Amino acid sequence: MKFRFAFLFIVVCAFRLSAQVDRENTSIIIPAEAVEDPKEDNELIINPEPVFGATPAASNTEVKIPKKEELPVARRRNFSITNETKFRNPAELYQDQLKNALKLRPDDERRQNGSTVTQYLGEFSTSAARVNIVYRDHQYPDGDLIRVYVNGEMVRERVLLETHFKGLFLTLEPGLNVIDFEALNQGSSGPNTAQFEVLDDKGIVISSNQWNLATGVKATITLVKEEDSVKNE
Q: Nearest 5°: phi and psi at 15?
């Protein structure tokens, strides 16, 4: 009797175990989502574009240092105590400066002392038979005296230049007529100075100029009488 109960118990247990196994085998298996291996390197790498001329040639292994641009160097002056003004006596420097200040250039000397050579005032042609020559001291009247010549002959021996015009009428000879103004002296304020004008018989100015003369020097102007005017007279 016990044997039956034991056999029945074994059969029941075996049946229940078989049912449990079948139930486990009929379950749905859902595959797991594939995951990338974290060991793999997924870093984004951007390679720089090649720059032309930036990469040195393989054969050129020498390092070249750019040359420095040399600035021009002023010429050195030879050291000399005698040439350096800073070592000189201040009194000597003052005397040198005074001499330079008093030294006149040729133009300045001519203005202060008057021209020492003949002043040529030009040559002019005219058809007029007669001209009027006038002159005056255009600066401060200081006693300037002149003498007037025409073709080498004296026509005015002694004329005092004043602020107003004075002069002479001159009948022209055919061809050249040379008029000289000689400075007889220099006035109290400097050289012999004057303004003069030459006018034709209609009052038209032929020439207007100035002179600045030392004593004994002349200013000269030449008038050419045209031949046609002579034939028509």
A: -65, -45
Each residue's pLDDT tens digit, 4-62 = 667 777 776 776 666 554 555 555 555 555 555 555 555 555 666 655 555 555 555 55
Is 36 a domain residue? no
User: One-letter amino acid identity for 102?
Assistant: L
The order of strands in the sheet holding 192-199 is 166-171, 130-136, 192-199, 205-213
Q: How far apart are CA 183 and CA 144, in angstroms?
A: 8
CATH number at residue 171: 2.60.40
Run of H or E including 178 = strand 175-183
Q: What pTM did the predictor assign?
A: 0.52
Each residue of 162-208: pLDDT tens digit? 999 999 999 999 999 999 999 999 988 779 999 999 999 999 999 99
Instruction: Give residue 228's domain range.
Output: 115-232
Cα 210 to Cα 114: distance, rounded to the nearest angstrom: 12
